[in-house]
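Curious: why this fold?
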Amino acid sequence: MCSLIALLRPGHDWPLLLAANRDEMAARPAQPPARHWADRPHVVAGLDLRAGGSWMGLNDDGLVACVLNRVGSLGPAAGKRSRGELVLEALDHALAGDAAWALADLDPAAYRSFNLFLSDGERAFWLRHAGEGARAIEAISLRPGLSMLTAHDLNDTASQRIARYLPRFRDAAVPEPDRDDWAAWEALLAERDAEDPAQGMTISLPSGFGTVSSSLLALPGRPRSLRESPRLPRWRYADGPPDRAPFRTLSLL
């Protein structure tokens, strides 16, 4: 399962702080976030080389989108579209609300189950596709504050990872993007559990499934067009498990 932590605080200079670990089969090829799509030059996102979509991206209007599998839905399925397309489709919109309503209208039968996070800093949404037989994709508005999402429902302590780490992220020092200080969140993202390798924030399983990259992202208050704003989003990316790979600041322009 992937993990996403979002601190939403509308009106702040940095209204969205986001941390995310991507868990995937190590053999699945991918490229770090960049402007990979000629038909979407406004999008900076990681590229899944197998299906052509993404797990996390940002557009020039300051909208971020992240997709996570739900329990029991790892990998593709015959007759289903790639969930990585959802990130790119979301980033065709400027505002989180517009993207949420558009994607909630998609046919749930076309996809395996997923959790999708969308935010433009002022608003954030969790789109929930509960799985086979789901009659609709639900769009749920997030309240300000810190939330955590894995393969389970938002802030669902039935997830051992959420039960363990949600209170720790809430108690941790809040990152300060102006000082490039993410130390507390970096340490939590990189934490492993020696007794149960599946339950740390960073994981590595004998099957080859594990944490393959990590992101820390801050959205500034609007207006923040990447083409016009003096204060740009900040995206720090580790191209590998965050306890081993260094975080580097991406060039967004």
Remarks:
- The chain has a mean pLDDT of 93.
- The longest helix spans residues 160-171.
- The longest strand covers residues 209-219.
- Residues 3-249 form a domain with the Penicillin V Acylase; Chain A fold (CATH 3.60.60.10).
